[in-house]
Amino acid sequence: MAFGLIAALTLGGCDEPDFTEAEKAMIASLSLSALPPLPPDPTNRYADLPAAAAFGATLFFEQRLSRDGNVSCATCHPSDRQFQDDRPLAVGVATTNRRTMPLAGVARSPWFFWDGRKDSLWSQALGPLEDAREHAGNRTAYAHFIGKEFADRYERIFGPLPDLSGLPKNAGPLGTETEKAAWKGMSAEQRASIDEAFANLGKAIAAFERSIVHEPTRFDRFADAVAAGREPEGEATLSDEEIHGLKLFIGKANCVTCHNGPRFTDDHFHNTGVSPVKGLPEDRGRETAVAQVAADPFNCLGAFRDGDEEACGELRFMVKSGEALKRAYKTPSLRGAATRPPYMHSGQIATLGDVVDHYNTAPGSPRGTTELHRLGLSEREQAALVAFLKTLAE
C-alpha cells in the first residue's frame, strides 16, 4: 500500500522530521536522473565509434586473448552480475591480490583500478592483458592473433596492422624472460608499431565499456518523486527503515562525504583502515600507484594518446606524495553493491553489515592514518543503513 506524502517523507513512529530542503536537494543529486551526458574521451578518438564498440565487445568476451585460452575480460566481469564477480580476489590464469571492480559507469572515472594506476579507460583495458595472473599474454602474440582472426575488422577501424612478418611469436616488455629478450631484440620501429596496435585494442575495449551503465533502482524512483514534490507510490516507495537509513547516509553517518553523486562515488582515494590480507604481499595502495601511472607509456601524456595534453590535467596535477596516499584506495560505487559481496579492495569484509560496523568502529590503519572517526551508531541505525543500501540494487 502506497505511503501518503507525509508518511513517505517521515519515519512513522520514530519522531524524525520530514526531509529538509537541503536533504531533498542532496537526495536529488544522488539520482541517476542527475547524471549529465557522458562526455567524450579526447584521448580516444574511437571512443564513440559504433564499429569500435562492436569490435571491443568481441574482444571483451574473447577467451583466446589469454595465455591458456580460458580467460577473457568477462571472466572477472560477468555481464549477469553487473560486470563484477563475487570472489574476494580476482582469478584469471592465476589468483590476483585484489578484488574485481565493477564496470557500470566506469567511463566517467578519471582513475582506474583500486589504486588508480591507470588514467584512461583504454589504458586500463591493457593492464590485465599483460598481467601474469590475469590474461598473461604479450604484445606480439596479440598482434599475431588479431592479424590472423580479426584483421579486416581491425583495419576498417584503425587502418593497416603493422608488418608482422619476421616478428617473434611471443615478445613483450612485461612477459617471461624469453619474451622480454625477444622484445629487446626487435627494432625501435617494430616495438612502436606493435605498441600502437596494442593501444588500439584497449581503445576498442574502452569503446564497448562506455556502454556499460547503471540501471535505475527503487532509490532513484523515490529520489525523483521527492525532487519533483510528488507522492512516492508503488515501486517508488521506501520503508520507514530504508528512509531512516537514507537520512543517516546523508547525515549522521557521513557516508555521502565519499559516496556522493549519482554514481555514489567521489572517484578519489581514501585510507579507511582496512586490514591487510594474511599471506598477500604488502599493498600500499595509491602511494605506489602514482609512480606507476606516471611511468606508464600508455598514460595520457604518452605517445598513444589521441588529442592534445589539455586532456591530461588529472595526470599533470595529481598529488604525488603525502600521508593521504598511504593505503588509500578508490571509492567504489555503491550501486548494486548489496548483491555483490564481499567488500573492500581484497574482499576483506564479508557482508554489508560488517562494512557498516567497520565504519562505525573506525579501526586504525596498519599504514598511514585512517580518515574514519567513530560514528556511534546504534544497532538499529546500522540495520537501517544496510536496508537503505539494498535499495541501490533493486
TrEMBL record:
Molecular-function annotations in GO: cytochrome-c peroxidase activity; electron transfer activity; heme binding; metal ion binding
Cofactor note as given: Binds 2 heme groups.
Region forming the signal peptide: none
Major location (coarse): periplasm
Cofactor: heme
InterPro entries (alphabetical): Cyt_c-like_dom, Cyt_c-like_dom_sf, Cytochrome_c_Peroxidase/MauG, Di-haem_cyt_c_peroxidsae, MauG/Cytc_peroxidase
SUPFAM superfamilies associated with the record: Cytochrome c (SSF46626)
The protein's name in its UniProt record: Di-heme cytochrome C peroxidase
